């Protein structure tokens, strides 16, 4: 596959490139994801996988009713998920709206847990580009080390790929040193072919991560969509030498779900992606189930949902 220089791209070239990508075999992708999703894991490997999954969580609160107090409590949980067990790893990051970044940065100082912020008029992205850039810069200035932006799905679905590309480039620039996760909102992209195209478009525009969903649309992360995105990052690295991370987000609530994603990563792109540096699970309510299953494996006793604080 030939990839032309991105600083010299025209809309026609970008469209030709994206439309020239091989189509996704829908049945094949769904069958493969379903098959991998039923793989069982040995008990010894399961304990390790649960800890890995915990370390990959972007612990998220994205509610209109979020308060500084709620974010502080979430940060405490991110650093020490189980107050009674210091062997539980910390999560990867806490993900909040831009106006709560400062609170999270203070609460997480020196902890090693990152602060991620959604920006660019999350979740719809429907604001003038300048407003989305201001939103991004504000989150970075407040100390966010990771920005989760949404793409303009309307422009993408209308075939205006260059607009989407240039907006990602602009947000990338506004991020400065912060990592950029580009949310494709795959539940609105209609086809797997579009998911593959949007993945390549985002990576070529400079995404550090590609992320499935905002969690605000009814169809959020799925295994087949994540499979298509994993294949895209694998192929992108083979062509360009640059590795991009993947973050399924939205609707991931159980340990079973989380482990299915880890099996998918292992079988599709291999261990190079099996770390929080390259794979995240965006979730608001997964952590407690991981903690309950972890304790059950260690003690044989199921703690029940009331045992742990609310995520
Ligand atoms: O980015 C993460 C999602 O917004 C979380 O979605 P969730 O509440 O379905 O876990």
UniProtKB/TrEMBL annotation:
Keyword Lyase: yes
Name by which UniProt lists this protein: Deoxyribose-phosphate aldolase
One GO process term, biological-process aspect: carbohydrate catabolic process
Matches recorded under PANTHER family: DEOXYRIBOSE-PHOSPHATE ALDOLASE
Record GO terms (molecular function): deoxyribose-phosphate aldolase activity
UniProt cross-references to CDD domains, sorted A to Z: DeoC
Superkingdom of origin organism: Bacteria
UniProt keyword terms in alphabetical order: Lyase, Schiff base
One Pfam family matching this protein: DeoC
InterPro entries: Aldolase_TIM, DeoC, DeoC/FbaB/LacD_aldolase
GO cellular component, one term: cytoplasm
Family: Belongs to the DeoC/FbaB aldolase family. DeoC type 2 subfamily.
EC number(s) recorded for this UniProt protein: 4.1.2.4
Catalysed reaction equations from the record: 2-deoxy-D-ribose 5-phosphate = D-glyceraldehyde 3-phosphate + acetaldehyde
Annotated metabolic or biological route of this protein: Carbohydrate degradation; 2-deoxy-D-ribose 1-phosphate degradation; D-glyceraldehyde 3-phosphate and acetaldehyde from 2-deoxy-alpha-D-ribose 1-phosphate: step 2/2
